[in-house]
Amino acid sequence: MKLSVKSLTITAALYWGGTVFFVALFNYLSPPFGKAFLDLVSSIYPGYKSVGSLGSVIVGTLYSLVDGAVGGAIFAWMYNAFSD
Fold first, then answer.
1. How many domains does the chain have?
2. What is the 3-state secondary structure (H, E, C) of 2-60?
3. Of 28, 39, 44, 66, which residue is most buried, by most CB within 10 angstroms?
4. Stated pTM of the model
5. CA distance 64 to 17
6. What is the distance, to the nearest Å, from the Cα of residue 40 to the centroid of all Cα atoms in its chain?
7. What are the residues whose beta carbons fall under 8 Å from the beta carbon of 20, sequence distance 6 or more?
8. What local confidence, expressed as pLDDT, does residue 84 receive?
9. Which pLDDT value is given to residue 53?
10. Other CB atoms within 10 Å distance of the CB of residue 60
């Protein structure tokens, strides 16, 4: 059985982007929420700071959408390559 690279790319991008978006948004509304998680995310994405501003919510979400898409595409491609 093969995985759809396109479907997994979109799914992973939306899942990871949504996760970072909601944690960052809740941190923006209630600053102590998810601080450790956002500090970890800011250590991975260059230029992203977990300062609790609306701009950081947007930047973190964009980074995570791209990261999720790339990760999903690579995972699906590798799965299909090795499942034969």
1. 1
2. CCCHHHHHHHHHHHHHHHHHHHHHHHHHCCCCCHHHHHHHHHHCCCCCCCCCHHHHHHH
3. 28
4. 0.90
5. 5
6. 12
7. 41, 60, 61, 63, 64
8. 78
9. 86
10. 25
